[in-house]
Design goal:
Length: 355
Amino acid sequence: MTEPIPTPARSNLVGASRAELAQLLAELDPRPFRAEQVYQWLTRRMAGGVAEMTNLPKALREGLAARAEVRDPEIVETRRGSDGTAKLALGFADGAVVEAVAMPMEGHTTICLSSQTGCAVGCVFCVTGVLGAGRNLTGAEIFGQYRAVLRHEGLVGAPVNVVFMGMGEPLLNVAGVARAVELIAETVSPKRVTVSTSGIVPGIAKLAALERRPKLAVSLNATTQAQRERLMPAASHWPLAELLAVLRAFPLERGRRITFEYVMLAGINDSDDDARRLPRLLKGIPCKVNLIPLNPDERYLGGLAAPDETRISAFAGILAAAHMNVTVRWSKGREVAAACGQLRGQIALRPPASP
Ligand code: SF4
């Protein structure tokens, strides 16, 4: 019996740039509009396979399908909350699993994407941080995540906002995130895309240098360097003064502001003194402050709790009295552990089943 001839692995079209597609198509049909057609199928119409690209001649589709395929990460689990939030676990070829969330809002859906398979920043209030570091996702993998969520949730062509607030620190993976933002920009303008960072100063500087910048959110969570280092160990690399300096220099398009996120932890960072220090720290930065009461998680974040509503209102009141733009964000998706800081808690890293 003869051995079957192994077929060479086909490349993945998802995440390819126009130039890469032109190179791939060079032998089949080198006319630039063909590469553009394929690019549009992948980035706008979210085609699930070459066969769907019906404005290409049949021979071209066959030639392309012999060389390449359209491969998004596999959706390995879905959870849905009664508020309509969907949390999806997505698996990649190397076995890595990340989580993404689709949250229905008024007039649009917000899609929350992961940029890494874990997180080395180690924020004590975040399930991903507690579970440890992972690898960077490539731009193509992040874009594949976006496509998979749109296709699975029936959102192709629907109005969406995108936030990089899932697993990982996006600004420890600027190259991957920038590539994904560029691909996503075919359907969502960068002014509807937000990158949320724990305050990686060199990453913020790189983001500032991008031609089409997404919006910036900074997870602050503390009003002194010592307090910040206790809550976010990686903050020891970038003192608060250095972080605020790079934010003051961050170029903001007309009407844009930097969002500061402040996860509220009872008895830790919720005092009146903290509330009074915050406006002084952020003076001169066009910004708004999102207060996010902690999403408790008994298994991973035991011992941490959200302040009660009276404390949160008092804190918000001090900020408002100092003329700060402040909102309290009661997270959506709590019941499926899809709220801020809860990703990777229940799907991607379930404790192994007992033998
Ligand atoms: S909050 Fe963000 S930066 Fe901090 S550990 Fe979690 S994923 Fe990482």
